[in-house]
């Protein structure tokens, strides 16, 4: 399996993406903002298809669209919290715009499949370099804001009284989520971002680990699911995103069953 260049590139890409999606997803689930990654991926889909029309890299459009949406969501704050109908309408419009852009493209079928469900085996060495750069930036940013972000997540009133800029943290964190979502979409596609962004983090949070151990465990579990999906895809000829989704759901259910058995 590792004799092929495209498989080695795929494993490296999965490593870079999982190391970001695990810790970012841990904070995402802890803050109760899991719907944000799904929303950002849909908005990023319109940006990716627009970039394809202009002859640019889909990753550029996906990251740009998701980043803009993440900043706007952070600035809006509580004004959009709980407004599922409004958010759903925005997502529908974004997907509709993306569908229009794909209709105008001559290679819409292959482009749609790659964007919606991912194409980890088609990642080029040049794309791998961009993923490495984005991953390094995300981890650096998360490391800088991790302590105040955790404080603001667990005790928002006390953090605000201590002078922690809650809205700025929200904007910066959602910007990181947007970049991580754009990276994750290269592996799982925009429709299955939950599989690598949310499933490992939600599984780890059920274990009740300390924050530092939880962040590390979320990254490790995301990596195990991504690499496991690649290996199972190689031997079964089924899509990698299918196996990643299956492993993520199975891990979450298994931890729940073990906890119930112990109780």
SSE topology:
Layout: H1 5-30, H2 34-53, H3 58-76, H4 84-104, H5 108-117, H6 125-154, H7 156-161, H8 166-188, H9 194-197, H10 199-205, H11 211-236, H12 240-262
Helix pairs in contact: 1-6, 1-8, 1-10, 1-11, 2-3, 2-4, 2-8, 3-8, 4-5, 5-8, 6-8, 10-11, 10-12, 11-12
Describe the structure.
82% of the residues lie in helices and 0% in strands. It is built from twelve helices and no strands. It has a single domain, classed as ABC transporter involved in vitamin B12 uptake, BtuC, CATH 1.10.3470. The chain is mostly helical and 263 residues long.
Structure described in brief:
The chain is an all-alpha fold. The protein is built from twelve helices and no strands.
Tally of helical runs: 12
CATH-level-4 superfamily name: ABC transporter involved in vitamin B12 uptake, BtuC
Which CATH architecture? Orthogonal Bundle
What's the β-strand tally?
0
- The name of the CATH topology is ABC transporter involved in vitamin B12 uptake, BtuC
Unreliably modeled segments? none
Order of helices and strands: HHHHHHHHHHHH
The tally of domains stands at 1
Biggest sheet details: none
């Amino acid at each position: 399996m590792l004799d092929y260049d495209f498989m080695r590139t795929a494993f490296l890409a999965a490593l870079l993406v999982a190391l970001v999606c695990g810790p970012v997803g841990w904070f995402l689930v802890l803050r109760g903002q899991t719907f944000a990654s799904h929303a950002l991926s849909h908005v990023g889909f319109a940006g990716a298809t627009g970039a394809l029309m202009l002859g640019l890299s889909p990753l550029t459009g996906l990251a740009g669209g998701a980043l803009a949406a993440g900043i706007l969501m952070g600035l809006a704050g509580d004004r959009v919290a709980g407004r599922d109908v409004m958010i759903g309408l925005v997502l529908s419009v974004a997907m509709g715009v993306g569908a229009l852009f794909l209709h105008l493209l001559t290679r819409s079928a292959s482009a749609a499949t790659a964007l919606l469900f991912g194409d980890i085996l088609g990642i080029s060495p040049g794309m791998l370099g961009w993923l490495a750069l984005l991953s390094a930036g995300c981890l650096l940013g998360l490391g800088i804001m991790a302590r105040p972000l955790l404080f603001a997540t667990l005790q928002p009133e006390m953090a605000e009284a201590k002078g922690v800029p809650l809205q700025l943290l929200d904007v910066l964190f959602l910007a990181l989520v947007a970049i991580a979502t754009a990276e994750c979409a290269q592996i799982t596609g925009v429709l299955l971002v939950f599989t690598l962004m949310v499933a490992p983090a939600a599984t780890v949070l059920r274990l009740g680990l300390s924050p530092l151990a939880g962040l590390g465990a979320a990254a490790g579990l995301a990596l195990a699911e991504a690499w496991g999906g690649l290996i199972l895809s190689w031997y079964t000829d089924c899509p990698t995103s299918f196996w990643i989704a299956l492993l993520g759901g199975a891990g979450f259910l298994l931890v729940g069953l073990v906890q119930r058995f112990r109780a």
